[in-house]
């Protein structure tokens, strides 16, 4: 792939068909080589390794001793079954059962400090546990559901309805205006962000929309601009809790941008030279999106021409 964003590049064979076989899944659980990564409320457990950090891996038996009945099957890694277990509650388990094994980090920090494969595996596990936490009851009849397929399916024993993890598609786009003396791109700012932080525009897709239509709607709603062309850049799994960021470059018809004061409190146009200064950290007032965000990749691609 020409672009690979944080939380992508998961090396596991998800075994999508095999995990539906209860007998096969039982064999994986009984495999003495089965491994388990550890999370606490969506935070992976990491340890130092060769100057950086990596995920902590335990045997599945050890993981289940620590966290009974709180595991999911993630896939196969070079033939070995890989699972994840998750602690719940407000008390950091490093003060107790996993003391001395490492530290728990927020998932955004994990994207910055972990190798690509580790971050992708951790993001997948977080999304699965977030879905499990929010879908313990059947949306059809309200009864409690049971885990199936190693955590990738929940079944209602009362009405038989099956529930599967869902991914929420989000368009994230860098508006570009080619008129005037030189091309410029638009960044926006939300009031809740750190001082100086600006980023690409983004919004959830709605039922019945194409990607291009969602892009045009969001740019019009947030900045008052009309989109004339849309080019796909790349995508990014975003485990907060389970989104797919669809990265786009959106050409607009004019530069009369105005923030809607609901989603965005400010917008600004940047030339390529100004965008490079933002990325280099030398711009006087604007800070770039963090390195693990697809918004930064969009800005980098456009700034490089």
TrEMBL record:
Key words, A-Z: Hydrolase, Magnesium, Metal-binding, NAD
List, for all copies, the residue spans of the domain called Nudix hydrolase: 165-295
Q: Which EC class does it fall in?
A: hydrolase
Q: Cross-referenced Gene3D superfamilies, in alphabetical order?
A: 3.90.79.20, Nucleoside Triphosphate Pyrophosphohydrolase
Cofactor(s) annotated in UniProt: Zn(2+); Mg(2+)
Please give the catalytic activity noted in the UniProt record.
a 5'-end NAD(+)-phospho-ribonucleoside in mRNA + H2O = a 5'-end phospho-adenosine-phospho-ribonucleoside in mRNA + beta-nicotinamide D-ribonucleotide + 2 H(+)
Family under the similarity heading: Belongs to the Nudix hydrolase family. NudC subfamily.
Q: What is this protein called?
A: NAD(+) diphosphatase
Q: Which organism is it from?
A: Brevundimonas faecalis
**Lineage per the UniProt record:** Bacteria, Pseudomonadati, Pseudomonadota, Alphaproteobacteria, Caulobacterales
